[in-house]
Design goal:
Elements: H1 2-26, H2 33-37, H3 44-54, H4 60-72, H5 86-121, H6 126-140, H7 143-157, E1 170-171, E2 176-177, H8 182-215, H9 218-225, H10 230-268, H11 273-282, H12 286-314, H13 316-321
Antiparallel strand pairs: 1-2
């Protein structure tokens, strides 16, 4: 088991280094930040001086090494646009993104598993077929289009929910949250549905498919022959064995929620890290872009590492194979 854990950790570190290298390489082609930082009356001397101050005149491998060295120490550099520490800016924006991602994840996991179990148990019912048909909307439509449709229906036509912003938030000193205010909760509804709808429908369809497969197994027939009730068979035996492959998919979808937050935050002007990244692209703010991608990569790889370890814990075959 220890060998399995160490190998997974080594692979995760290697993935992070490769992602950081690719991202840092791509930023060289998005534009020159000097053009946005200096005015129209800039001189060649001003350009060379600022380029030297930012370290952009150094070789690319040295720039990447210094970035990694600073990131390990918690120093992510200074924003070209705001002139502030990138870590400070991200800490201000992180609560909004994490809050949105957590609510969307809970929505996707709870409703996805519940609806998947229901549609599997009542596979011939009208409501189950209606839910499966409606789930095609979440699977087929892109995230930004779902957000626009929700804004048009609930904000423009019905005027029930706000269409942008985070609403009123409460400052807890180390965290800002909108879950403690009415306007904050209202502002969270549409973005969380938009972000979690695709993951919810995917989880639901997977749970239904796996559970239908498990319900056809011989040990389920044996349990019915012994006189066990439907509730015990469905939730103690069938659902437990269904969750083994579903856990892996849930881990991947949690990472996808963080990745898709960029689109959702842009549509709803949600003041999180995704919107910060989009604005950083417009101003070629390389330290912010690099820090954001590395942070998302760490979260994505970390989630998948936890899922791999948990998967090995509940499935002894993986421990034996390792």
């Amino acid at each position: 088991m220890l060998t399995f854990v160490l190998r997974r950790i080594f692979q995760s570190v290697l993935v992070l280094l490769v992602v950081g290298l690719v991202a840092f390489s791509m930023f060289r082609f998005v534009g020159d930040p000097i053009e946005n930082m200096l005015g129209q009356e800039r001189t060649i001397e001003d350009i060379e001086r600022l380029r030297g101050e930012l370290g952009l005149d150094q070789p690319f491998p040295l720039q990447y090494y210094k970035f990694l060295e600073g990131a390990v120490q918690g120093n992510l550099g200074v924003s070209y646009r705001q002139g502030r520490e990138v870590s400070e800016i991200i800490l201000e924006r992180a609560p909004a993104t994490i809050e949105l991602a957590l609510v969307s994840a809970v929505l996707a996991i709870v409703l996805g598993i519940a609806l998947g179990v229901y549609t599997a148990i009542r596979s011939d019912g009208f409501l189950a077929n209606f839910i499966m048909s409606s789930s095609l909307i979440g699977v087929s439509l892109p995230t930004f289009l779902i957000g626009i449709l929700l804004i048009y229906l609930f904000s423009v036509e019905l005027n029930w929910l706000p269409s942008f912003g985070r609403g009123e938030v409460v400052d807890l000193g180390w965290w800002t949250t909108g879950l403690l205010t009415v306007s904050g909760l209202k502002s969270l509804i549409l973005p969380s549905i938009t972000l979690g709808l695709y993951q919810m429908t995917l989880i639901m369809r997977l749970v239904r498919s796996e559970m239908l497969e498990v319900l056809r197994q011989d040990y389920i027939r044996f349990a019915r022959a012994r006189g066990f009730g439907d509730r015990k068979i469905n939730f103690r035996y069938a659902l437990k064995n269904t969750m083994i492959p579903v856990i892996t998919i849930i881990g991947l979808q949690l990472g996808a929620i963080i990745a898709f937050a960029i689109i959702t935050e842009t549509v709803f002007q949600w003041p999180g890290m995704g919107l910060l990244f989009v604005n950083a692209i417009q101003f070629v703010d390389i330290p912010v872009m690099a820090a954001y991608l590395m942070l998302v990569s760490v979260m994505f790889v970390g989630i998948n590492l936890i899922v791999d370890l948990f998967y090995a814990f509940i499935d002894p075959r993986m421990r034996v194979a390792s």
